[in-house]
């Protein structure tokens, strides 16, 4: 009974499946399934987990690093 009411014990897809209609809406609206990569145009692939942290930090001015 404990695992049915505590969200920590739920499978991950229980969180992501409800987001699919929202994702497809924005993908159709923008015309691209990778619409979220436009948020960071200076970072390779928009920062979708394939970017280098070192290269990203090099984009910042020296006063901030």
Description:
- Helix content is 38%, strand content 0%.
- The chain is mainly alpha-helical and 65 residues long.
- The protein has one domain.
- The protein starts with a helix and ends in a 7-residue tail after the last helix.
Write the layout of secondary structure elements.
Blueprint: H1 2-5, H2 13-16, H3 20-30, H4 53-58
Summarize this structure briefly.
By secondary structure, this protein is mostly helical.
Radius of gyration: 18 Å
Supply the helix-strand structural class. Answer: mainly alpha
N-to-C series of helices and strands: HHHH
Number of strands: 0
- The oligomerization state is single chain
What's the structural domain tally? 1
Count of helical regions: 4
Helix content: 25-40%
The average pLDDT score comes to 83
Low-confidence stretches: none
Descriptive key words:
mainly alpha; 65 residues
């Amino acid at each position: 009974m404990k695992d049915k009411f505590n969200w920590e014990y739920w499978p991950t897809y229980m969180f992501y499946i409800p987001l699919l209609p929202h994702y497809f809406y924005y993908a159709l609206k923008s015309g691209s399934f990778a619409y979220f990569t436009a948020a960071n145009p200076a970072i390779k692939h928009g920062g979708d987990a394939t970017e280098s942290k070192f290269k990203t930090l090099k984009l910042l001015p020296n006063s901030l690093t």
